[in-house]
Design brief:
The chain is of the alpha/beta class. The chain is 35% helix and 20% strand. The chain is elongated.
């Protein structure tokens, strides 16, 4: 949840954070208020970022709207499919809800309503190319033409900090410190790791690293030779073969954790467990709330109930049995 200090982040700052998150390679969602009906604390055009870990940055609405937006944004990050939400009392809209729009109840004290568009933001793939050969430079240029983020680094300068678990790494040192560069790459545990070289050379390098005690499972994931087998080819054609293999693996969803097109399941990625916040339904108004101490928990007959507001909790306390029975029928 955001604090009051964090809630009113100017939209310009939100857009700056969008750029920063895109550079880190973390998938996230961007929520924008496209319509409002007062009274509402939000404004048309208000924006907020929802990260994969469930953090909300910016301002999208008050205590009623925020849990609903967080919940829907997590689904958007998981599926990669945008959603247009209409938040308010369902009776407000009747049959006037356009097809494809999702109505999310945010009942209780406010009579306001919001229309919020939530879109997934999937950063460009990150390709780390280790080496300074003509092939490495050709691969860097070709991947850049696809809009990928690329890092071209000399073998002696490369460390595991240059890559991450979402990165794709191609070691193209081609006999100049292959063992040292590949060891650093293995320690980064990237989504893809390929070594440019013959199978015989690859077996020798991997055998050496195995003797050094590197994780056998990670060594087993090294693709050698990297790229599609095109036989004897030029430096530029080797680059094409490697890029073609990476495109194929991403399109098929075989690169676990790599940022790419399609759903999270197709990418092999999942929203972090920390994003799976427990939720509950307010037994008085039917609104979905976060099941934690911020939602005014109250235990009745051994069951804990959560509320969107003090008003709903007081209503429950007046006749808990009636509201408990109502919830059990839902």
């Amino acid at each position: 949840m955001t604090s009051d200090a964090d809630a009113h982040v100017p939209d310009l700052s939100v857009l700056e954070q969008v750029s920063e998150l895109a550079r880190t390679g973390e998938p996230f969602a961007l929520a924008t208020v496209v319509w409002r009906q007062g009274p509402s604390s939000s404004q048309q055009g208000s924006k907020a970022i929802i990260t994969g870990s469930g953090e909300l940055r910016g301002w999208i609405g008050g205590a009623c709207a925020e849990p609903a937006v967080l919940r829907e944004a997590r689904a958007v990050i998981t599926t990669g499919v945008p959603r247009l939400l209409l938040l308010g009392e369902p009776g407000q809209f009747g049959a006037a809800v356009p097809e494809g729009m999702r109505v999310v109840p945010i009942a209780c004290q406010s009579e306001g309503a919001l229309e919020v568009y939530i879109e997934p933001v999937v950063p460009a793939p990150h390709l780390v190319i280790v080496g300074r050969s003509p092939m490495a430079q050709a691969l860097d240029s070709m991947a850049g033409a696809l809009g990928w983020r690329t890092t071209l680094v000399a073998g002696e300068e490369f460390t595991s900090a240059d890559a991450g678990e979402r990165s794709m790494v191609v070691v193209a040192t081609q006999g100049h410190g292959d063992e040292e560069a590949l060891e650093q790459a293995v320690r980064a545990r990237p989504a893809y790791l390929g070594l440019v070289g013959s199978r015989r050379r690859g077996a020798a390098v991997l055998g050496y690293l195995a003797e050094r005690g590197l994780d056998q499972e990670q060594l087993g994931r090294v693709q050698v030779p990297a790229g599609l087998d095109l036989g004897r080819t030029t430096h530029q054609e080797i680059a094409v073969a490697i890029l073609a293999e990476l495109v194929r693996l991403r399109a098929s969803g075989e690169l676990a954790g790599a940022v790419g097109p399609g759903t999270a399941a197709e990418r092999g990625a999942a929203v972090p467990a920390s994003a799976a916040t427990a939720e509950a339904v307010d037994p008085v108004c039917g609104m979905t709330v976060t099941a934690d101490s911020s939602s005014r928990p109250l235990t009745h007959d051994g069951q804990t109930y959560y509320f969107c507001s003090a008003r709903c909790r007081r209503e429950f306390e007046r006749d808990p049995a009636a509201h408990a029975r109502k919830e059990s029928r839902c």
